[in-house]
Amino acid sequence: MAEYNNNLTVDPKSGYSPANSTFYSKRKPIPFPANESLDVTTFISSRAHSGKIAFIDATTGRKLTFSDVWNAVESLATSLSVDMSIRKGDVILLLSPNSIFFPIICLAVMSLGAIITTTNPLNTNNEIAKQIKDSNPVLAFTIPQLLPKLTGSNLPVILIDGVNDSNSNLKIVGDLQKLIQRKPSESRLKERVTQNDVATLLYSSGTTGASKGVISSHKNLIAMVQTIVGRFNLDEGVQTFICTVPMFHIYGLAAFAAGLLASGSTVVVLSKFEMDEMLSSIHKYKVTSLPLVPPILVALVNNADLIKKKYDLSSLASVLSGGAPLSKEVIEGFVEKYPSVRILQGYGLTESTGIGASTDSLEESRRYGTAGMLSPSMEGKIVDPESGKALPVNKTGELWLRGPTIMKGYFSNEEATASTLDSDGWLRTGDLCYIDEDGFIFVVDRLKELIKYKGYQVPPAELEALLLTHPDISDAAVIPFPDKEVGQFPMAYVVRKTGSTISESAVMDFIAKQVAPYKRIRRVAFVSSIPKNPSGKILRKDLIKLATSKL
Predict the structure, then answer these.
(1) In this predicted structure, what is the pLDDT of residue 5?
(2) How many CA atoms lie within 13 A of 382 on its CB side?
(3) Going along 96-195, which residue ranges are E strands?
(4) 496, 448, 449: which is closest to 476 by C-alpha?
(5) 362 vs 336: CA distance, rounded Å
(6) What is the mean pLDDT of residues 187-199?
(7) How far apart are CA 141 and CA 153, in angstroms?
(8) For residue 327, how many other CB atoms are within 10 A of its CB?
(9) How much is the average pLDDT of 372-390?
(10) Average pLDDT across the chain, whole number
């Protein structure tokens, strides 16, 4: 046993303290700036680094140096403050695909103490209208092609790139390309921004209900930056990352709009994910690190021979997978096909600013199915959902997290905040997990997604993992199907592998041989793909809606 802070006795293997039933991170704690009057933009821009090129547009080849980026941030901040009277606390909407200008907009807005809220370009007009109504922005940034999605909002708009040739009645108040050319003004109003002030208002994926605005502070983002820089040893040399994940999502925003800028690394930006463009960009720009979600990793394994004939991926040193734990088959398949590339994993939520747990080496990733160990300065609890009692090592319950990246709460939603954050700052993740004797977290399932069959609890993830071991199945999702007699039973959506003719009964028989009777799949539907959100999580609510629409 080892001595931790507050004189607590903590098991050095698991990180668990029986005194307060808390798991402590085994990683080196992250350092924090002592200055409370500090915004995340100033924090990032003041960090020393040796990098030259900050961003490369994969499609056009356009490059922005670090001095280009910081000049543009200052110029845009001046325009927003002086010309458009943007003030601390104002909410600014960013509706855009990935772009080398995305981080510039975020950093300029946050430097003023204003709040950035991002939205998915694939969202419907109604979904965007709901977010606008909820967050009440005073200004929007978008591209000409997406202007119709803001119709009816009456928001003044700054165009990021291109000329407005749509019939939109929206008021265009600026052109980003011109605004970032103006001379920064020393006389602009500079309001005091503290680490505790709100920086971002990102909307959670809503996989288990309505999407909610997550309030993150400058301190949350600074802690996130420090964690990312420390995790990848980014202070030790310049790396080249490629941005395949959406910047509007916490995964993309965490890594690219802030984390890598702080280290001097170069980010190659794909405006949208396209496999060939990603691979050719790795080849062309000698990319060293590839953040991705599990489906892309699976594609890299399945098509490895063809890919390696066509592209030189010898520069690649690591892939970083987030969104869902990787199976043994996927990890070992990747190691076999790409032996020189480290495979790392991460676990986080929008509510934890993308930080929570990680595997930081191939050896750690080979704890098959793990989400990793608690991130630096993060604490965890495993809590029995029924009794509320905190549980020890190797017991399954809801994972609670506490640490410097945990959100302030949900925007204008006290009820949701109170049910998710307790008075001591613990975030209820909604994930059923256990932490093993070595401190590794294993996600068993989503708490709210458990299927209740005659009072028994059936974890969909367990059945999905079994389905994915079948040689004729390429992807699968399991949902609760309502039934008058048993309450709910497991239903599977299955994607057959090319050429397969596997039947519904064969799928059900395959599972029936491996699980208890109450866990058996009792209905199967074949689909061409499983709907997932940008971070790779299965959109079960969409499948439940599809399944029950025919009742």
Answers:
(1) 56
(2) 25
(3) 115-119, 139-142, 157-159, 172-175
(4) 496
(5) 13
(6) 90
(7) 13
(8) 16
(9) 95
(10) 89
Residues 6+ apart with CB under 8 A from 359: 344, 345, 346, 365, 367, 370, 372, 373
Residue 4 has pLDDT above 70, yes or no: no
Rounded mean pLDDT of 440-455? 82
* Among 275, 280, 289, CA closest to 341: 289
| Residue 93 in tokens | 């909407």
Return the pLDDT at 208. Answer: 47
207 pLDDT higher than 50: no
138 close to 92: Cβ distance less than 8 angstroms = yes
CA distances from 32 to 103, 112, 193, 425 (A): 23, 21, 17, 19
Share of the chain above pLDDT 90, in %: 66
Residue 427 backbone phi and psi in degrees, to 5: -95, 120
User: Which pLDDT value is given to residue 1?
Assistant: 42
Are 102 and 54 within 8 A, CB to CB? no
Residue 244 Cα distances to 97, 309, 348, angstroms = 11, 22, 18
Q: CB neighbours of 282 closer than 8 A, spacing ≥ 6? A: 242, 290, 311, 313, 315, 316
DSSP state of 421: B
pLDDT band of 342, cuts 50, 70, 90: very high
Contact 407, 353 (CB under 8 A): yes
Q: How many CA atoms lie within 13 A of 410 on its CB side?
A: 19
State the greatest distance between any 2 C-alpha atoms of the chain, in Å, as a whole number.
73
DSSP state, residue 481: E
Q: CA of 100: how far to CAs of 38, 57, 59, 199, in Å?
A: 25, 6, 11, 20
- Which one, of 504, 281, 469, lies nearest residue 368 by Cα? 469
How far is residue 141 CA from its own chain's centroid? 22
Better pLDDT: 479 or 457: 479
- pLDDT for res 167: 65
Nearest-angstrom CA–CA distance, 293 and 58:
19
Q: What is the mean pLDDT of residues 482-503?
A: 91
164, HSE (Cβ side, Cα atoms, 13 Å): 18
Distances (CA, A) of 292 to 221, 275, 278, 324, 327: 21, 11, 11, 11, 15
Cα–Cα separations (whole angstroms), residue 281 to 230, 245, 286, 480 = 26, 15, 8, 41
When pLDDT is averaged across residues 318-341 and rounded to a whole number, the result is 89
CA angle 346, 43, 181 (to 5 degrees): 105
What integer pLDDT is reported at residue 307 of this predicted model? Answer: 96
Interhelix angle for 294-302 vs 328-337, to 10°?
50
Residue 53 has, within 13 A of its CA and on its CB side, a CA count of 15
Using CA atoms, how far apart are residues 217 and 405, in angstroms rounded to an integer?
Answer: 9
Cα–Cα nearest to 94, from 78, 81, 80: 80
pLDDT for 418 beyond 60: yes
- Which pair of tokens denotes residue 330? 């996927």
142: region left, alpha or beta (phi > 0 left; psi from -120 to 50 alpha):
beta
